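Comment thread on ticket #2218

A.B. wrote:
> Attaching the input chain for the structure job we discussed in standup.
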Amino acid sequence: MATHTPGRRIGMALIAPTLALGATVGLASAPASAAVWSSCDQWGNTTLNGYTLYNNIWGSGAGSQCIWANSGTNWGVNANHPNTGGIKSYPNAKKVINKSITSLGSLSSSYNVSVPSSGAYNTSYDIWDTGYQYEIMLWMNKTGAVGPLGTSQGNLILGGHTWTVYKGNNGSNDVFSFVRTSNSSSGTVNVLPILKWIKDTKGWFGNVTIGDLQFGFEITSSSGGLDFTVNSESVSSS
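C.D. wrote:
> Ran it. Output below, let me know if you need it in another format.
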């Protein structure tokens, strides 16, 4: 989950720096080739061509993680988090939408990632309303002992993918998780029909204004140091 500078992960995304939770942030390996920007800071962040990048090591018991970027849509991390439970980080790139659902004519995103075959993590979109009352997560792939918050609402074909839908609350906000039924490392997701389904078909929220749309890796463990790379990403709305 994600949000503000340097981010505030609630439920399964960002947190405020004041909630550092004692994360131990050491030094990880920076990318071999020089990037436009890199950081090993817990809350390292920058803005590149309209996207805000966050290292965002927010969870308890975290290890080390370094983020690098050639652009806002081509970036990655080397993360070395211990093989323990609990989410350690959500490095991500954020695009601000700031439109109500009914005023959106379209909202979609394309993604292409390279992820490790070991560890425990998911590759996900984290979408927030401007009041941070509602969080919509789209899990494009997952590996290891990870799972969404809440209870299953059944399967659904929507936005170009087949999902298992989960509904829950983390004590701060409602969380609606759409977990792809098979892993995908590249593709396009049509986000607007998903938002309209939540609003119009289920009535789980009203005509909220969509604020942050984040895309990144929710990492629970990556012992020994693993690489997560966004080869390309694009977010388009009208």
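A.B. wrote:
> Thanks. Noting for the ticket: Residues 141 and 182 are 7 Å apart (CA to CA).
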